Amino acid sequence: MTFALELLAPARTADIAIEAIKHGADAVYIGGPAFGARHDAGNPVADIERLTACAHRFHAKVFITLNTIFRDDELDDAQKLAWQVYEAGADALIVQDMGLLQLDLPPIQLHASTQCDIRTPEKAKFLADAGFSQMVLARELSLPEIGAIRSRVMRSGIQADGAGDTAPILEFFIHGALCVAFSGQCYISHAHTGRSANRGECSQACRLPYNLEDKQGRIVAFDKHLLSMKDNDQSANLRALADAGIRSFKIEGRLKDVAYVKNTTAHYRQLLDRIIEQAPEYSRASSGHCTYTFTPRPEKTFNRGATDYFVNGRHADLAAFDTPSFAGAASGVVTRIGPDWFEVDGEETWANGDGISYLSRGRKLAGLRINVAQGKRLFPNEMPEDPEGFKVGTEIHRNRDQAFERLLEKDSAERRIDLTVELGETADGFRLTLRDEDGISAGTGIAHAKEAAKNPPRAFAALAESLGKLGGTDFRATDVKVVLSEAWFLPASTINALRRDAVEQLIAARNAARPRLPRALPVEPPVAYPERELSYLANVLNSRARDFYRKHGVALIADAYEADTTLGDVSLMITKHCLRYSHSLCPKEAKGWVKGVNAEPMVLVNGKERLTLKFDCKACEMHVMGRVKKNRQIPIQPIPHHA
Q1: Running DSSP on this structure, what letter comes out for residue 452?
Q2: Which fold has domain 327-409?
Q3: Structure confidence at residue 161 (pLDDT)
Q4: What is the 8-class DSSP label of residue 45?
Q5: Which pLDDT score, from 0 to 100, does residue 599 have?
Q6: Largest alpha-carbon pair distance within the chain?
Q7: Domain ranges of the chain
Q8: 525: cis peptide before it, omega within 30°?
């Protein structure tokens, strides 16, 4: 029994998704024409069809994001879109809105989006029983919490991909941007701008600078990006996550460029391959092996610094308080400054066009572009004007590595499926058999006269060399066997025809061996939802979602926040990130005089905007409180309360 480990990569476009497949992704997730939780990352159905054709050659999968919450007047269009992407070959829908489960959907797998806020074993078990084949666990979970969910959702039977794992697939983000809020539990954007994060239009208030004031109005932190997290990097925790029960390893970044996708996908492909090589209980989730023209380095493409968040428990170094932008990798310090140049120590090799960043006075991120690099002496497009913000000793980061970027602009990976190639004899000719790394085989024969070769050793070598020439296909010959009673002469045209026909037969056999994954059936009768009452935090925006929860025993169901019926001050964001903790004011952790300090309430201030912070120490959560702005546009009407 082996457990398949899936590397799941993001894509803004079909072309980027195809590059992710080439660079080692076992699956990609991508938006269709509408209703994905990234407003600017939609793709026409024709592009989805082109992508699935490419992915399925390697038995890789394509997941479509249908993970916004819907108004009643959008459900018909969502249902039509689900059928369109299914017919285009998509393997799963990633959804948040439970109203979709009440529609006439195609027989396609359903995956529970990160927006479902899956933090507890009870909720995970409910979603598994409701018919979800895969679910994205909350980013905030620790290894023991993941293990507890794993234990709770175990069930008898075999999962849809035929592997030995007997539970729905648990998915976890391993790289990329971190939303400071529990996913699906942030309403600041809607309250302030009318743009709902749950509908794919987040205005990213979390990346703004704030002052932090205590209850006496004293400044605890000034002009800092207090809600901006560093980026997720679980490179060191992959084996521990797999052992805890994670089977799908997800890279964030559906708005990122192709260089980021290539670089991060290749990085995690290599790390997962090492785990699979070392641990016989784990296996690949798709076919093919990748070779690269570059050495993957995640720090070279967009990141805000790295954190493993709460996987190994709470720690202080989570936030990117200084800047929400890409500072780049630390690359040395300034040692000398001239009239139009400066010198930097360190091991880096600099190039014309490199980008440099540094923290100027007030720890504000500033940047330079290098026009000419002469060893360690760098001539920027213009020198910084502030001598106090840029001086000897200033730490330098490189946020554009021109040489690295140029490597990624070119074809930077190949993916090939390993084959054993065997040429044998038949009564009236020859047969070529191909067997791939998945154990799928196919072959073709040809009637041909058997004429002895004039130079047997050379003939055997030539046959083996010719049979292994698979360069124009998705395959590579790792073992070529010529099993003949003697060295027969075969023209190159005959060998080429045999090889071409055998490859076509193998492709057909691989397609036949990749049946569409069936949709998981919900448990009957419908299981009870873990709660009897739902607040606005359940994100119920349409009547079909109400029907779903009523069917599962929920008695009271409030409107989603986006319905604008939730008045007054409420939690606009719920987060495990705690500003009391990060400023050494946590009553659980404080020592000495700080133990007597009452730091609640605290207030975040950005211009005229004031957001009160409340702290739930029992749950170890912070709530950002606020209300809908009176002067912002209200885009939708309250939903009806009919069945």
Answers
A1: B
A2: Thrombin, subunit H (2.40.10)
A3: 43
A4: H
A5: 61
A6: 99
A7: 3-178+230-286+294-300, 180-229+565-643, 327-409, 418-512
A8: yes
